Each structure stands twice: as structure tokens, then as C-alpha cells.
């Protein structure tokens, strides 16, 4: 049988690269032998019927090809207990399906359009700050997880300092007050999409009610008592009356107004305004001044109107005729400038990007690479760190974590709450990996961390944790220190993740496994069937002598649950030696031993959390591809589709040649076809 597979692979393409009939027979033979029991002949689990599959059918359904590639590569299918293909057969099928996916995407011209979307609250604040060059924020931003107490973030140095002082507004009430414009209230916070981000276009609509709120918001910004030359960096260039304006001739006045409006509107709208657009704004200014209104007041009205305009609020690609062969069109240089700036800076393109866009040079690869380097060294990169990693790691879930107060009293004893310190540790790790351009594997198995005195008292070294004295000063100073115990390094075993994936009284291996699947492998499991009752927090009568693994075994007995549990249970039980607040333990309170063993991808056996990390890193390309998917989805503000899968393969291959450095990954995201094209 195996010889037939290899012979079929050798003959499957003709000289033109087209699929020969033998490929259809070989694909059909594979699905007949390994898939048809569950996905054919009257059984179509997951609504997938492979009984009569052939190459032509696959080319017409790129999403199906993508799913087949995924389940075969991750060894989700065939399920355990069923006949498994030999490694050579599995490799053959993967190598056969990849060119089919390429052909399917090309033939179907199925491309996911980057949707029109409005700025979210975080982006709006940044855009207004940059447009007006404010030296304060517009309004308070609780969604910004980390608050800087000192200017430690200096990416231009390529190094993070040994000690940083930071805080956290969502969890800590006694925080340094951040300067902001008085009298300005933010619009409602935009929530993170499930398995996505808060910049997703399908979540960011603009209702008439919200449009009215934006109009009021724009007016309140320019009406704020803090809106003055001390606060607004462009005051003299835009708001202050020109010298001797009253002595100028009408033509000179008109030119003066136009010279102020042109660069302002270009930056606000991310491209030069249309002539009629500029004319309308100019006419308003000139007629208002002719009526005797104050110059500064008129320009404030212009600014308020601009930051309430749909052209400011909406992020979109201009419509263009798609290429006849691919269905794609390169984005223009102004669109590229916007994608770059909102990806890395969460804000408007700066003057340098807009100037290159005006010259038509930004899309040149050498120029683009230079700008990527510049942007990665700019301190506005902090906005990327304030937005992406917390959402990627789903750290907002710690806000609703409520460990049992009687069992874990120390979790609640702290002026600033222990959970706040937990949240900041993985964020500082991410920032360091980014600024110092370290391999992304440090996110899994870091050899350093940043910890406060409170975290050191509670979490390490492992086995020596002790309760802190009640008179301990809870400082918000985090110090860089080496990780000497591999059980603790990286984001997976961080206290915040361990706590937010637990219940009040016990760990939740299924929840932890689902988090690892979604965050680390970008493969979120399907929701459980509605009729499956949750496992009780505490053992039921008769379960006192059962381990948690044994109690959960009942969930695996249902056929419609077994597939997911085979994938996520090993991921969750690998972390079972961390209790509900992330402290190390060797056994349950009952004295029963903890079994943290398992198998990853049905290939890598592990007995403990260190070996689990080794198993993940044995396929660092898989983690790289998953993180690339998260970053690309964040950069494009949309869910990914089959065509993006091809780009992820290319990105991963390129980054692997650069030792999986995080900056290399970000660069390849920007250079990728999905980032630089539109449909």
C-alpha cells in the first residue's frame, strides 16, 4: 500500500504542474481508508463528507482543504483508536494538499476583505493625541493594562532596563493620576472579539447614536479648559492667529488658511483631502472670519469637525478594480502607511510615512524595511505593547477571577491586589522580547522575568513560597531577574494565566487546555455541547478518592466530546501541578498524587511541565505560525481565511531562517501578501 502512495505522488503532476488523474485516485484512497468511517457512507461528523472526494471537489472548497491540512498536520485526525496512516502516508497527503490549496485559492478567488471599520477607543485617543500633538491623553483608558510610572520604554536603545516602575489602572485604585483633558468623557469601551481583538471590523460599527456621541466628543475636546498652548503642540501652527492677519490682502488670507488646513487635513484623513473637500473647509473658515468670529475659535471648530468626520473615524481601503488573475489589488502607499501605523502605533501615520506615500516610494521594499526599522525603534511602539499582548494572552479574564477567599486569603491581601502584579509580569516579558529582538521561544520558556517583591514572596523559588508579612510594602517596582527553574519561565505558567483559567476552589484543566490551544497554537476548540453539565467545583459524594483527571473522564465518554478532549485535556493536565492561584504543588489537598503526563500532537510524550515546554519547542515552527496568525489578524483587523494560510506558511519559513526573532516575525507580517493587498 505504501509503495502505491509514493508511486502516486511521483506521478500526480504533469509537466505543467496540473494534477493528473492518479492524484485523485490516491487522495480518494487515503480518505477511503482513514476517514470514511466517520466522514462518509451515511456518517458525516462535523458536516464533513469525504466519501466521494476528489481533487476537483477540493479545488472548489479551499476551506475544506485548509481544515484537512490542519487536522492531519496536528494529528487530530484520524482520532485515537482508529487506524492511523504511516508517517510517510501522512506526509504524502500533506504535500499533496498544499498545492491543491494554492490552486483552490487561485481558482475560487476567495479573499477575505479587510472591512471598513471605525477606530476603537484606544486608537481614537492615540490619533487625536498625535494629530494635535497633545502632551496628555484625551480621556482615561482602563483597557490599557499597564500604566508607566517612569519612562522606561526606550526601544531605540535595544534594551530594557533592569528595574521598571509600572502600575495598573483596572485593578489598582491608588495609581498616579494621568494628565488628561478636563471635561472630556470617552465613548464606551470596545470589547475584544471572541478569539480576536478589539479592533475587529465586524465588531466596530458606527450607529447614529454613536455618531452623535462622536460629534459631542470632538466638540468637548476643543472646548476643554485644558485645550491651550500649554497642552496642544500644534497651537501656534494651526490655532493661533497669524501675525498681521488683518493687514493681509484677501488672496494672502486665503493662502494662509489653505496652508494651515492642507497638512492638518492630510494627517487627519491619512491622505491629501480632495479639492472640493479642502474648498468646503476653507470656505467655512473664510466666511466665519468675514462674520467677525475669532480666528482661534473658528480653527477649533475645524478641528472638532475633522476629528468627528467619518474620514477620520473610519479605517478603510479605497475601492479598486481587482486583478483579473488573482482577485487582489496592491494597496496604495497611503493605505500602506495607515496599515503600518495602526498596526505598530495604534494611530495615524506620521509626517515621514505620509511624505513617502506622497512620493509613491513607501511600497518599495528597501524603503519599507527602513520604515519598519524606524517604527520599531520609536517610543510609540509602546501602544502596540499596550494593545496586542494583553489581548493575545486574554489577560482581561483575570479581572473576573475570584479564588475562594477562605482558601486563598493572600490573593486578596494587598493594597494593589496580587492579580495586578500577575498581569504585568507577562507583559514586561513580551516587551523585552520585542525591544531586545529575542526569539519568540522566550515567550514559552524564558530564562528571565520581571517580578515585584510581592510576586517574589508568593511565587518563587518554587517550593519555598511563603506568606508575606502583613506590614510588607507593596511596591510597583519590577526587577529583571534570571529564571533558575524552568517550571516558571514564560507566559504559559504565569500566575495570571493559571489563576484566570481556574475556578474558585479548583483548577480547570479543560479551561487551561482550551487557553493553550487558542493562545499558543491559535486553534480554539469548539464550544461544548449545551447539554453537557459542568464539573462540580468540589468532589461529589463518592468522588473523594478520585483525582481530577479521573473525575473528568466521564466527559470523554461522549462521542461528540471525545475529539476535543483528546486535544485539550493533555494541554490542561500538563499544568495541573500549579494550583488555582498558580502556586506549585506536588499533590492534591486529599494527598492524591498529581499526574501531569500527556502527549502533544500525538507525537511528543511528556511527564511534567518542563517536558511539556520541550514538546512545544520541538515544533517551534508551529508556535511561530500560530503567533503569526494572531499578529496578522490583529494587523488586518479581521478573521483570517484560507488564502491567509498560504501567507502564514511563507511567513513561518522566512522567520525560521532568522532564528524566530520577534521583530523578524513582525517584519514578515508587514511584507506579506495579505498585508499589502486588498480584494
UniProtKB/TrEMBL annotation:
The keyword Signal applies. Residues 1-20 form the signal peptide. Residues 331-460 form the DUF1592 domain. Residues 489-587 form the DUF1588 domain. The keyword Signal applies. Residues 605-675 form the DUF1585 domain. InterPro entries: DUF1585, DUF1587, DUF1588, DUF1592, DUF1595. Residues 184-223 form the DUF1587 domain. Transmembrane segments: none annotated. Residues 257-316 form the DUF1595 domain. Keywords: Signal. This is Cytochrome c domain-containing protein. It comes from Rubinisphaera brasiliensis (strain ATCC 49424 / DSM 5305 / JCM 21570 / IAM 15109 / NBRC 103401 / IFAM 1448) (Planctomyces brasiliensis).
Amino acid at each position: 500500500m505504501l509503495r502505491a502512495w509514493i508511486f502516486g505522488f511521483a506521478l500526480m503532476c504533469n509537466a505543467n504542474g496540473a494534477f493528473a488523474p492518479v492524484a485523485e485516485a490516491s487522495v480518494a484512497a487515503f480518505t477511503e481508508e482513514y476517514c470514511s468511517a466517520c466522514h462518509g457512507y451515511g456518517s458525516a461528523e462535523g458536516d464533513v463528507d469525504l466519501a466521494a472526494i476528489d481533487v476537483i471537489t477540493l479545488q472548489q472548497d479551499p476551506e475544506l482543504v485548509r481544515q484537512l491540512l490542519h487536522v492531519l498536520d496536528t494529528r487530530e485526525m484520524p482520532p485515537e483508536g482508529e487506524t492511523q496512516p504511516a508517517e510517510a502516508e501522512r506526509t504524502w497527503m500533506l504535500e499533496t494538499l498544499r498545492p491543491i490549496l494554492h490552486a483552490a485559492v487561485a481558482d475560487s478567488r476567495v479573499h477575505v476583505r479587510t472591512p471598513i471599520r471605525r477606530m476603537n477607543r484606544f486608537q481614537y485617543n492615540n490619533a487625536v493625541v498625535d494629530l494635535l500633538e497633545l502632551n496628555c491623553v484625551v480621556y482615561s483608558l482602563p483597557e490599557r493594562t499597564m500604566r508607566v510610572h517612569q519612562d522606561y520604554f526606550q526601544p531605540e536603545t535595544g534594551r530594557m532596563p533592569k528595574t521598571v516602575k509600572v502600575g495598573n489602572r483596572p485593578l489598582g485604585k491608588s495609581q498616579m493620576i494621568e494628565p488628561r483633558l478636563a471635561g472630556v468623557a470617552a465613548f464606551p469601551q470596545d470589547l475584544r472579539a471572541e478569539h480576536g481583538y478589539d479592533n475587529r471590523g465586524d465588531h466596530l460599527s458606527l450607529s447614529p447614536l454613536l455618531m452623535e456621541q462622536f460629534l459631542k466628543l470632538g466638540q468637548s475636546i476643543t472646548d476643554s479648559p485644558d485645550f491651550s498652548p500649554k497642552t496642544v503642540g500644534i497651537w501656534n501652527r494651526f490655532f493661533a492667529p497669524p501675525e498681521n492677519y488683518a493687514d493681509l490682502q484677501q488672496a494672502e488670507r486665503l493662502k494662509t488658511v489653505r496652508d494651515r488646513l492642507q497638512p492638518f487635513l492630510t494627517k487627519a484623513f491619512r491622505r491629501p483631502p480632495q479639492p472640493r473637500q479642502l474648498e468646503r473647509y476653507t470656505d467655512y473658515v473664510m466666511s466665519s472670519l468675514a462674520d467677525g468670529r475669532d480666528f482661534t475659535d473658528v480653527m477649533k471648530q475645524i478641528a472638532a469637525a475633522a476629528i468627528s468626520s467619518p474620514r477620520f473615524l473610519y479605517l478603510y481601503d479605497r475601492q479598486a478594480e481587482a486583478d483579473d488573475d488573482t482577485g487582489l489589488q496592491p494597496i496604495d502607499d497611503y493605505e500602506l502607511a495607515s496599515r503600518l501605523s495602526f498596526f505598530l502605533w495604534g494611530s495615524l501615520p506620521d509626517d515621514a510615512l505620509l511624505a513617502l506615500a506622497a512620493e509613491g516610494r513607501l511600497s518599495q521594499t528597501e524603503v519599507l524595511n527602513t520604515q519598519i526599522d524606524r517604527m520599531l525603534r520609536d517610543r510609540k511602539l509602546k501602544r502596540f505593547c499596550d494593545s496586542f499582548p494583553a489581548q493575545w494572552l486574554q489577560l482581561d479574564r483575570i479581572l473576573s477571577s475570584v479564588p475562594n477567599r477562605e482558601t486563598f486569603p493572600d490573593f486578596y491581601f494587598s493594597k494593589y491586589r496580587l492579580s495586578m502584579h500577575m498581569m504585568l509580569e507577562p507583559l514586561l516579558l513580551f516587551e523585552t522580547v520585542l525591544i531586545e529582538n529575542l526569539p519568540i521561544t522566550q515567550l514559552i520558556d524564558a530564562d528571565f522575568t520581571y517580578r515585584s517583591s510581592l510576586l517574589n514572596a508568593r511565587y518563587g523559588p518554587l517550593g519555598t513560597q511563603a506568606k508575606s508579612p502583613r506590614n510588607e510594602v507593596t511596591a510597583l517596582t519590577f526587577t529583571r531577574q534570571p529564571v533558575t527553574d524552568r517550571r516558571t519561565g514564560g507566559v504559559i505558567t504565569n500566575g495570571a494565566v493559571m489563576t484566570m483559567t481556574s475556578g474558585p476552589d479548583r483548577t480547570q484543566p479543560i479551561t487551561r487546555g482550551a487557553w493553550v490551544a487558542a493562545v499558543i497554537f491559535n486553534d480554539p476548540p469548539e464550544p461544548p455541547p449545551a447539554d453537557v453539565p459542568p464539573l462540580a467545583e468540589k468532589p461529589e459524594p463518592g468522588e473523594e478518592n478520585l483525582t481530577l483527571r479521573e473525575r473528568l473522564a466521564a466527559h470523554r465518554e461522549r462521542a461528540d466530546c471525545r475529539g476535543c478532549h483528546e486535544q485539550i485535556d493533555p494541554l490542561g493536565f500538563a499544568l495541573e501541578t500549579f494550583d488555582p492561584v498558580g502556586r506549585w504543588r506536588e499533590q492534591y489537598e486529599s494527598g492524591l498524587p498529581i499526574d501531569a503526563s500527556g502527549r502533544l500532537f500525538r507525537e511528543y510524550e511528556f511527564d511534567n511541565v518542563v517536558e511539556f515546554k520541550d514538546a512545544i519547542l520541538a515544533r517551534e515552527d508551529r508556535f511561530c505560525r500560530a503567533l503569526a496568525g494572531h499578529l496578522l489578524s490583529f494587523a488586518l483587523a479581521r478573521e483570517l481565511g484560507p488564502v491567509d494560510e498560504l501567507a502564514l506558511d511563507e511567513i513561518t519559513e522566512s522567520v525560521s531562517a532568522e532564528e524566530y526573532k520577534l521583530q523578524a516575525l513582525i517584519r514578515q507580517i508587514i511584507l506579506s501578501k495579505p498585508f499589502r493587498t486588498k480584494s
